[in-house]
Amino acid sequence: MKVTPWEVEGSIDYDKLIKEFGVQRLDNKLFERLKKHTKTLHPMLSRGIVFVHRDLDFALKEYESGKNLFLYTGRSPSGPIHIGHVFGWEFTRWLQEKLDLELWFQFPDEEKFLFKENLSYETAQKYLKENMLDIIALGFNPKKTHFIIDTKHASLMYSEAVKVAKKITFSMVKSSFGLNDSTNIGAIFYTSMQAVPAFLPSIINNKKLVCLIPHGVDQDPHFRLTRDILPKLGYYKPASIQWMMIPPLQGVQGKMQSHNSDAAIFLSDTPEQVKKKINKYAFSGGQATIEEHRKKGGNPEIDVSYQYLKAFFEPDNEKLKKIHDDYKSGKLLTGELKQILIDKINKFLKEHQERRRKAEKELDKFIFKM
Amino acid sequence: MKVTPWEVEGSIDYDKLIKEFGVQRLDNKLFERLKKHTKTLHPMLSRGIVFVHRDLDFALKEYESGKNLFLYTGRSPSGPIHIGHVFGWEFTRWLQEKLDLELWFQFPDEEKFLFKENLSYETAQKYLKENMLDIIALGFNPKKTHFIIDTKHASLMYSEAVKVAKKITFSMVKSSFGLNDSTNIGAIFYTSMQAVPAFLPSIINNKKLVCLIPHGVDQDPHFRLTRDILPKLGYYKPASIQWMMIPPLQGVQGKMQSHNSDAAIFLSDTPEQVKKKINKYAFSGGQATIEEHRKKGGNPEIDVSYQYLKAFFEPDNEKLKKIHDDYKSGKLLTGELKQILIDKINKFLKEHQERRRKAEKELDKFIFKM
Question: Which fold has domain A2-250?
Answer without folding.
Answer: Rossmann fold (3.40.50)
